[in-house]
Amino acid sequence: MRRGRPPRPSRGARRPGGAGAAKPLPDRGRDRPDGNDAGQRPTGTGKAGRAGVGPGAGKPRTAEAAAPSAKRPAPSPGKERRTADTGPDPAPEVHAHHVQHNNPVTTGPHSIAANDIKNVIIRWVMHPSARWLPLLLACAALVIAQTTDPHGPAGQYALSITLAVLAVAAGAVRVLIRKTPSVAAVGALSLVSVLATVGGWLSFQYAAAHADVDVTGQVRRAGTLPLTGRDHTVTFTLGPAGLREHRDRLRLTLAVSDYDPSAPACSYRTTATAYLVDGGAPAQEARVRSGRPLDFVLNSGTTSVQIQVTLTEQDPGQNCRTDIRATGAVLHDA
Amino acid sequence: MTSALPRRRALVGAALLTLTALTASACADDRPPTLFDQRSVSVGVKNDQPGTGEEATYKFAGFDITVARHLLEGVGAKPHFNSVPSENRGQAIVDDQEDLVAATFSITPSRMKDVDFIGPYATTSQGVMIRDKDAGRIKKLEDLKGRAVCTWKGTTSFEELNKKAYGDISVYQVADASRCIADLRAGRATAVSTDQMILYGFTQKYAGLQVVPGIVVGSPNDYGIAIAKKYRADCRKLSDKLRDYLNGTDWERDFDLSLPSITKRVQNWQTEFKPSADSVGQLSCRDAPAS
Question: Which residues form the Solute-binding protein family 3/N-terminal domain (chain B) (predicted)?
């Protein structure tokens, strides 16, 4: 008869996903003063605990006995504690802590340990239905992002696209794994997929909030055409509809050309100057060069933008007939 | 054994020659085509416009011819002049019938799409020419209301006068300039309309005709020498020579020699007819005017 510290629980009992079967403890039940089989209390769906001896060992195990709420079997009244006078020291109370896959077992005052949390997470990660969650989450985020009809060039969404691809790829690998992989591998894949989905979503939101907005089709031109030495002013207006998404600046590209291409070239003899109409006063004056963008700073909360372009002939009286068109208008942040 | 060595040498020599030939042909293909390797450069010019381009006893003379000769000799090329009708000026370049065309050819955005220009080498506005005896009643454009004004095919003059702004003028087109002069002298037309440089040239040859100074139609015309787009490198060389020409004093000398009717009658003729050297870069060797 062996006394002293109880043996450690078997490794098979600790490994998650394993059989979870606890190896039977050494037959010490008769020697224990309380007749308890070291307080071991099988719970969950794991296999029954030791089939060892003890007062209750011979009794058939039932579901109630296996339930966590089952009471501890009372010590056999027939048992007597051994005393120091009569023999070896009484066996100390043992608080064993067996870890079984999906079947944690605790006793004593240290009821919740870090391993419990870990086991819960592992149980979730390794659950068969959890295979699809990361991929579904990534795909859902992709679909929702597309339905918002994001503006601006694709380059602004490069980071979110990259993270989306990573999220879908990791989720797909997670789904396609057939053989039971390690917890670490599965957890890593799931974590990467989820983090990439979240990161991609956040970067998409940021890019969408600050993306360039092409409003070329919403710029209206007012003024007499062709521009001549007499009628030499044209105004480009961007109304409230084009300014729904506020940005700090407007990048406007104008094309200056001869009104009649079959007539002698004359527009090169003219100079066009553009300025922002700010409260009726000209501001941010800029020389217009055909095909080159002009950048105007917009007031916060503005609902309408007017840009006036004035044409001047290098030598008055040349009768140049000039056309000015807006070929590009993009709202953007600095 | 003794015959193998010469055979090997022959093979090596042939391989080297082949390699050299291939390398030479590859290098040769990289060079852009040029007009200046030819024995002479053919230049299409007008033959019926005194002062700008006229043929007399198989010799061509006029400001267009002078400018073309000056630029080509500046790059070491020899010109050979041929006559070209107004309506064929651009097509002659596109069809490779002429290497260059220097024929009071106005630079327009639509023409710049088809050919390159070296210019402007002269600037003029569209005007009208009348008989001396009509000088008292034809002084401004409105005086031509309801009158027959002659232009000829292939010029921008007809399109300009045909616009709505000049709707009261009865403008018509004939085959060439000589027909218009004949109509004017015969009284079938009240006026002939085209570029003032050309009209002043006619007054040097035909007595009893004058250009109305107060009448200007449309915007100024810039004359350029047309060249095929595939010779863009040659175009740039010639335009560099043109800049030097405009920056010097030879332009005024040559202009006065060709068109004394202008230099004697128009007070600010250098300002009106001489383009700036900067404008050469805005119109030469481009697909569209700079802006």
Answer: 40-265
